[in-house]
Amino acid sequence: MARTTGSDGERTEAAVREAAVNLIARYGYEAMSMRQLAAEVGVQAAALYRYFPTKEDLLFTLMREHMEGLREAWERARPFDADPAEQLAAYVRNHIAFHIGRRHATHVSNMELRSLSPDRLTQILKQRTAYEKELRTILREGAEAGDFSIEDTGLTAMALIQMMTGVIVWFRPGERLSVTEVTATYLSMTMRLVGARMDTYSAARPLDGQRTQ
Amino acid sequence: MARTTGSDGERTEAAVREAAVNLIARYGYEAMSMRQLAAEVGVQAAALYRYFPTKEDLLFTLMREHMEGLREAWERARPFDADPAEQLAAYVRNHIAFHIGRRHATHVSNMELRSLSPDRLTQILKQRTAYEKELRTILREGAEAGDFSIEDTGLTAMALIQMMTGVIVWFRPGERLSVTEVTATYLSMTMRLVGARMDTYSAARPLDGQRTQ
């Protein structure tokens, strides 16, 4: 997401990040050169190295900020004093909204882990694990409260995250369904998948009635 | 999958395909050169062009054969005279088994659509649509028979496929769970997600009791 305020330096750095996400999503990280990126942004290659001393610094920054953004969005979206079904519904809504708005960055974050050095890979995986743990905690608390019926909390969390992130593969704004409709249907599927009791399930569905066959 | 029988030419071609899948999964298609691939296989670059006149011919062959393999596996696995829950269970088992055994090829097939020419992209997308349609048909027939409770057949099919294919991202043989255990848990999640009636659902779960918390 390009910043529209800030110094020239900040604007350039934001433009570099945005162009890099698009180039990596299109060609892959290994195939993108800093020279190609500089040309895309309209600066000298040397200028890029002021912001990102190595190509991997750039990749790592993109991935770290993507995960930080996701976790911050969840911190803002999470309801307090809510039962597990409401918390799960909030997690689903936030996850889908965040990723639908960042299709290329999500692509890069999921695909290019292979190109991080071991230390940095560990850092990104730690961020991911922390985010996924939030979901596992909701699922476990729901199961313990008898609100959900779940065999394996870890597998259920992975299944839900991959199901939800998968929306970016096929969803395009302006086609058959709106984001609201897609989210409502994914919410229903999620609640059934975790075996939510019908009463908690209904309480967590304010978007009901917007679904299509 | 390398062939172990056949002429020298067939063996070389199989070795090229296998090396290409691994290199593309590691570096991305755009970053892989035919020279690098030839070195990996231990042949002259000119020899590669006998089998694959262009790099894109190679990519297209890998993707087409992946989808053909998936559809053939499903044709062999699909039960006839079975109710929708049994058919859905067979689809889930086949999908997970096929993809777990072909992690790199799945990666390549999902990521490198961006590098196909428009005509070839259309061909691969047609194969995918035909495969996904099989699942949509099962879901629709189950919903019509009152065995499943589904809001949107298309979205449910996409959600299930992405949830199942996602197994390759985290599953590693020899860790906490076996393929059989993972499949059993995914089968339960699938049956709940489609709102399967409990009796049909149980009938489709021969693997019951192998699940872990």
Automatic annotation (TrEMBL), chains A, B:
InterPro entries: DNA-bd_HTH_TetR-type_CS, Homeodomain-like_sf, HTH-type_TetR-like_transc_reg, HTH_TetR, KstR2_TetR_C, Tet_transcr_reg_TetR-rel_C_sf. Keywords: DNA-binding. Gene3D superfamilies: Tetracycline Repressor, domain 2 (1.10.357.10). It comes from the Bacteria. The keyword Phosphoprotein does not apply. One of its GO terms (molecular function) is DNA-binding transcription factor activity. Pfam families: TetR_C_24 (PF17932), TetR_N (PF00440). SUPFAM superfamilies: Homeodomain-like, Tetracyclin repressor-like, C-terminal domain. This is TetR/AcrR family transcriptional regulator.
